[in-house]
Amino acid sequence: MVVIDDVAVLNKSADLSRPTYSRKLDPPSTVLPMFRRLGNLIRGFFGLFISGLEKQNPEALLDVEKENLRKQISEYNKGLSAHAALCERLMSQVKREASELKELTAKATAHLKAGNRKLAGEYALRLQKLKTEHADNVAQLGDAEKTYEELKRARDIAITAARDKIESLKRDINETKIAKATAELNEMAAGMINEIGGAGDTLNRLEEMVREEKESASGRARVARDSIDSSELNVMEAERNALEEMALADFAAESGIVLDGGESSTEGGETDAPAAEDEKAM
User: What is the pTM of this model?
Assistant: First the structure.
C-alpha cells in the first residue's frame, strides 16, 4: 500500500510540474476569412482606381484594345497559314496521285495488251488502291478548302466588325469631348450671368463708384461755370472786334482799297469805340 501511495504522489507531482498552456487562441477558421475579406477590399480599391483612370483616358484604353486586336489577328493568321499549308500539301499530293494514276493505267493497259497478265494484275491492284486513296484525298482537300474559306471569311467579318466598333468609339469619344466642352462653356456662361446679374458684386460696386465720381465732377464743373464773369468776357471780345475793324480800315486806306460798307463799318467802329470806352469807365 505504501508503494502505491508513493507512486500516486509522484504522478501528482509530475502533473503539477507540467507547464500549462492557454487555449484561448483564434482558430484558423476565423483568421482566414478576415484576410480574404481584406484582400477583396484591396482589389476593390485598385479596381475603382483603374476604372477612374480608364474613364479619364479613354483614348489610351482604345489604343490598348487596338493593339490587342492586332495581336489576335496575328495569332489567327498564324493558324490560318498552318491550315493553308495543309491544303497546299493535300493539293500537291492529289496532283501527284493523279499523275501516278495515269502512269499506272498506261502500264497496266500496255502489259495487258502484251499478254503479261501477272504484271498487268499487279498494276491493276496498285491502281485500285491508289484510286481509293486519291478519292479520299480529294474529299479531304475539298473539306480543307471549304474550312479555309470559312475561316478566312470569319476573320474578315471579325476584323470589319472590330474596325467599325473602333471607329464608332472614336466618334463617340470626340462627341463626348465636344459635349463636355460645350457643357463647361454653358456652365461658365450661366455662372457669369448669375455673377453679373447678382446684387452687391464687384461690377455693381464699380458702377456705384463711377456714378459718384461722375456726379462729383459734374457738380464741380457747374460751380466753376457759375463763378465765371461773362460780362467781362463780352467786353473783351467787343474791344478785340473793334480793334480788328479799325486796323482793317487803316490798312485799306493805306492800300487804297475800298471796303464794301466801309463807311458803315467805320461809323460802327467809331460808335463802338466810345461805347467800349464808356463801359471801361463804368
Answer: 0.44
